Amino acid sequence: MNNSYDIIIIGGGSGGIGAALGAARQGLNVLLVEKADQLGGTAAIGGVNNWEPVVGGTGFPFEIYKCLTKIPDAVGISTFGRHISCQKQNEQVPYPGGEGVIDLALSYIDTLRRHGAGNSPKSLEFRIKNWHSVVFEPDAYSQVVEQMLDKTGHCTVLKKTAFSRAIVDRGHLVEVELDNGQKISAPFFVDATADIVLAMACGCKFMVGQESKDVFNEPSAPSKPTGYLNSATLVFRVSRKNKIGVDPLPEDIPKACWWRECFPYISVEHYSCGDLNINMLPTMAGDEAFKMGSEAAYKECYRRILAQWHYNQINYTEFQQYSITWVAPMLGMRETRRIKSSYILTEHDLLNGLSCQDHPDIIAVADHAMDIHAAEAGHGRCIELNEPYGIPYRCLLSKDIDNLMIACRGAGFSSVAASSCRLSRTIMQLGQAAGMAAVLAKQENVPLLKVPLEKLRASLRRQHVQLEWPLSEEIKTYINSSDPMCI
Q1: pLDDT given for residue 123 in this prediction
Q2: For 98, how many CA atoms within 13 A lie in the half-sphere containing its CB?
Q3: Residue 121 pLDDT more than 70?
Q4: Are strands 332-333 and 232-233 parallel, antiparallel or unpaired?
């Protein structure tokens, strides 16, 4: 193994995958370091095995989807099923949340829009018609990603390896040390970890919790700063069983909900094979999980999902046909620390949308709602957007380290903005942009902050990354006419 690379990426989740593919396909010598035993991050190990509807998932995410279509039952596109807010006449008991069911008539393009639903009860019709997700098998997803990286011939992947220490000299990251003792260097680095651990080790300034209104003058910000973090979820999977009935609950777990007034709703996605992916909304307050630490928070969340599942089996008899067969080995965190970057994306960007943003460096677009999952019943917030917004390249650039990019949910977002742009496909697009920025910085012999923006945007467009709305005819044609074989 080498000790020197063109770019080193810490974290093998969505952002790390995007950055590694982007750089390696252009010939850079890439090292991707992941502490888990498989790639994918929250989208695989965290159990969030579905890409929610969102504008902008047209680059590497689409390629991954096409590869998954080669594997039987590995991927499908879901449509709006039953929902607690729209009980049908023949339903004696309302559904305990929302449901996505596989619809073979849908295509990938159908998953590329969320905005326009509005925030009234009448918006349900729009959601049923337009909201579609990509649901995939996590092991197949990780397998496809590794094959794509290997195919570049320029990417070394280290799994079961963690970042340990950073060496910084006058605002420049010189070297990192891994937990195996190896010291490695590169002219460019990407932090794609769940909690920006590389940036933290470099001494970068960061934000955590909700900023007060006077910081960014955001309409939805609280009057005073809070330590609240968007909630965490432990996702699990259930499969059909031979004997119908209620699964036993361990004696040390209460049958009644002990952490809030009542059990929360669930989001249920059907896999192509017939299993169900269940996402409790939420399992634990984000700040509670953050303070407890990953191991203690996971143990407590495990108890909570067992209690929730027992409750649902008793009250919704259709679930008695299933048993839990898999629990995500990683707690899904929606928010932790966020970097103080060269530009901070705020609620103003989200509300202005592409039509009123004038950033010359937009490298990804998104349209997910400002979505806060509250730990207490009735305290959540989900504000839908009227149009997509753009994410500037400067959100990826550390203000303190000149050769470090942040390509994860810890990029330069306010807490309000982070509640929208945290989705896997959006983060992968940020990673793709980071990888291409490193390529251009090397080619032009300039620092990351001086990368020629039009060249960066042009390179992303050549890779079929959507940077405008509506979706261009060129990208539509590319998606609809792409060979069903893996790209």
Answers
A1: 83
A2: 15
A3: no
A4: antiparallel
pLDDT in tens, 135-166: 999 999 999 999 999 999 999 999 999 999 99
Residue labelled with tokens 């080193």: 8
The reported pLDDT for the residue numbered 483 is: 64
pLDDT by residue (tens digit) across 289-312?
999 999 999 999 999 999 999 999
Give the C-alpha separation, 374 to 378, whole Å: 8
What are residue 97's phi and psi, to 5 degrees? Answer: 160, -130
Distances (CA, A) of 47 to 139, 202, 430, 455: 11, 30, 21, 36
Q: How far is CA 348 from CA 217, 356, 394, 419, in A?
A: 9, 10, 16, 14
| All domains of the chain in start order, with CATH | 7-40+143-208+337-481 (3.50.50.60), 232-333 (no CATH)
What average pLDDT does the segment 390-402 reach? Answer: 97
Q: 350 Cβ partners below 8 Å, 6+ apart? A: 370, 385, 389, 416, 417, 420
88, pLDDT greater than 80: no
pTM as predicted? 0.96
Tokens 């994410």, residue located: 391
Per-residue pLDDT tens over the stretch 1-11: 689 999 999 99
Half-sphere exposure of 87 (CA within 13 A, CB side): 9
The three-state DSSP-derived secondary structure of the chain is CCCECCEEEECCCHHHHHHHHHHHCCCCCEEEECCCCCCCHHHCCCCCCEECCCCCCCCHHHHHHHHHCCCCCCEEEEEEEEECCCCCCCCCCCCCEEEEEECCCCCHHHHCCCCCCCCCCCHHHHHHHHCCEEEECHHHHHHHHHHHHHHHCCEEEECCCCEEEEEEECCEEEEEEECCCCEEECCEEEECCCCCHHHHHCCCCEECCECCHHHHCCCCCCCCCECCCCCEECCEEEEECCCCCCCCCCCCCCCCCCCCCCCCEEEEEECCCCCEEEEEECCECHHHHHHHCHHHHHHHHHHHHHHHHHHHHHHCHHHHHEEEEEECCCCEECCCCEECECCCECHHHHHHCCCCCCCCCEEEEECCCEEECCCCCCCCEEECCCCCEEEEHHHHEECCCCCEEECCCCCCECHHHHCCCCCHHHHHHHHHHHHHHHHHHHHHCCCHHHCCHHHHHHHHHHCCCCCCCCCCHHHHHHHHHCCCCCC
- How distant is the alpha carbon of residue 464 from its chain centre? 20
pLDDT band, residue 485 (cuts 50/70/90): low
Q: Is the pLDDT of residue 260 over 70?
A: yes
